[in-house]
Amino acid sequence: MADSSRLNRRGFLVGGAVVGAGALAAACTSNEPEADEGAAGQQNVAAGGDNDKPGKRVTIGFSAPQADHGWIAAIAKNAEAQAKRYSDVDFQAVEPTNDINQQISAVESLISRKVNALVLLPNDGEQLNQVARKAMDAGIPVINLDRVFPDKLSYRTWIGGDNYGMGVAAGHYIGNKLKSKNASNPVIVEIQGIATLPLTQERSKGFADALKTYGFTVTAKQDAKFTVETGNQVASNLLQAHKKIDALWNHDDDQGVGVLAAIKQAGRNEFFMVGGAGSANAMREIKNGGVLEATVTYSPTMASSAIRIARLIAQGKGMSDLVERQVPQSITLASETITRQNVDQYLPLGFES
């Protein structure tokens, strides 16, 4: 295999045709069925109810980090594609950046344009908290996407995935399977994202809590920084350290490209693996059969729902499936488990790593 310093995400991809990156969530305003998939490369979108009928024209601003990760890239694509569904939405996205000060300046430019709503995925919730509060104080509702601001006065609604729930879902899948095999003192390995992040700690806690209900614990865990290269290195180290493994949970399907490459290079297949987030290449691996049996979702389709929510709030509407007249203050998406049995249902929603 090539030197790890030269390895990239695409170099690790194993088979399967490339499909469109990311797809849109089911309508947050309706229970009606999804619309047909559009032209190649377009996002799958859902048909809506009465709330989807054209209304007051609104301008929605959007800011997110630079798309240097498959999940982040899908966030931006989902947001833009969803906004295009509406003739009454003017979508204004600023240049994505991983520089905190540049993102602050970009958000300030949206505030000066007096957008009607702002969908904001901050590089860092704490450091962007003040500029989000500035938008709210200016009367611009902020839809806080994924990385939460510490001050609730800095956002109108937060929407994001369930990190603890991801761990619980992975833990139940692994626990159930090992229990059915009457496993005793199984070797369970966990590959985290960035260990210092609260989201990673929540995932690990959910995983440990779920495993505990089966009488199991994590044997070893190490973080892989959400990168393909580090995923490859960490997996290689863990495989060398443990000559026999029963189950492995990898928190992130992007870094999982490197993890799978290490497993295949080592020729190991005595264990099964669960991924995290729900990438298209992970789903193709699941469908083909092999070590990777499942992945638990943390879907970038949340960006699609964030655009829908921003539009509703800007137009003074609520969510039609709820009794309440206003959009909720917080929405946590469920973490779903994708296996070979249901992978065909989820594959159109996968994002490319």
UniProtKB/TrEMBL annotation:
The keyword Oxidoreductase does not apply. It comes from the Bacteria. Signal peptide: none annotated. Residues 38-49 have a biased composition (Low complexity). Residues 60-317 form the Periplasmic binding protein domain. InterPro entries: Peripla_BP_I, SBP_2_dom, TAT_signal. It holds the Pfam family Peripla_BP_4. Residues 34-55 are annotated as: Disordered. Keywords: Signal. It is found in: Cell envelope. Its main location: other. Belongs to the bacterial solute-binding protein 2 family. This is Substrate-binding domain-containing protein. It comes from Actinomadura miaoliensis. The lineage of its organism: Bacteria, Bacillati, Actinomycetota, Actinomycetes, Streptosporangiales.
